[in-house]
Amino acid sequence: MENMRRVLVTGAGRGIGKAIAQQLGKDGFEVTLHYRNSADGVNEAINNIKQNQGKAYALSFDVCDRENSRRILEEDIEKNGPYYGVVCNAGITADAAFPMMSSEDWDSVIDTNLTGFFNVVHPCIMPMIAAHKGGRVIAISSVSGIIGNRGQVNYSASKAGLIGAVKALAVEVGKRGITVNAIAPGLIETDMALLDETVKKEILKLIPLKRMGQVQEVASLASYLMSDNAAYITRQVISIDGGMQ
Ligand code: NDP
Which Pfam families does the record associate with it (predicted)? Predict the structure, then answer.
């Protein structure tokens, strides 16, 4: 147990993040489950991991609060050791047609989805490098960052920004054996993708597999990227979207 690799999953109290955290716990990682509001979800996930003899605990901060994020992560790393893996999953939408999009909608989405990557990964990366044990950074981007979605100029920009960040960071840290990749989910059944039936029907027309994705399917991909088997995969954007056109 002492030499378990530590991994951090942001936004682990619900949705995709919770599924990834629970899967990584099953895979034998020591998991830090980050949350902002979803303490109950995190506690439930931690109990599940512990029931399977895994090791897990919670950490709470707002990924938009740079100072607090850094302080809490630095203290955590100082006390418990460097992270082997970081999954940047926390994210929001604030959709509106661009002419109607408020500056608050723009700022909140960029701050959470893109600047949140800096606020979380930056404090973790030097200790990861210094540990000389390789590592993994996984950003949860979106199909929206690849194709650009109507009503999501802010969200698409933030998720495309993450892809750029991942590609550049992969070049910088590759020689340290650290891989950096993005996962680009399509429509996954979570709170974020609660759609009315008419909209859902229209979107399903664009998905050859004719269904929404499940959180466990994204978790399985994250689990693979975190594993030793994925050691030669870096600087990639891997879509998991049912073939969305
Ligand atoms: P949910 O809305 O279910 O969960 C969002 C998560 O982000 C929550 O855990 C929430 O934490 C966390 N979060 C949001 N803002 C902050 C913040 N400021 N500080 C800390 N944590 C924050 O979304 P999903 O599970 O669906 O999405 C997870 C990721 O996957 C997101 O990045 C999303 O953009 C991406 N994605 C989702 C798709 C989908 O169809 N569902 C498709 C493509 C990408 P808390 O509850 O504790 O506040």
Answer: adh_short_C2
The ipTM estimated for the assembled molecules is: 0.99
Residue 234, ligand 1, Cβ within 6 A: no
Spans of all domains in the chain: 6-240
- pTM as predicted: 0.98
Instruction: Please state, in angstroms and rounded to a whole number, the distance separating the CA atoms of residues 7 and 35.
Output: 14
| 91 CA from centroid of ligand 1 (Å) | 4
Please name every residue paired with 59 in a beta bridge, in sequence order, or none if there are none: 34
Provide the annotated active-site residues.
Answer: 155
- CB of 11 within 6 A of ligand 1: the answer is yes
- Cβ(63)–Cβ(92) below 8 Å: no
Q: What is the DSSP secondary-structure string of 56-97?
A: EEEEE--TT-HHHHHHHHHHHHHHH---SEEEE---------
Pocket flag, ligand 1, residue 35 (CB < 6 Å): yes
The 10s digit of each residue's pLDDT in 134-166 is: 999 999 999 999 999 999 999 999 999 999 999
pLDDT tens figures, 12-35:
999 999 999 999 999 999 999 999
> What are the tokens at 138?
């996984």
Looking up tokens 């933030």 gives 158
Which residue's C-alpha comes closest to atom 41 of ligand 1? 188
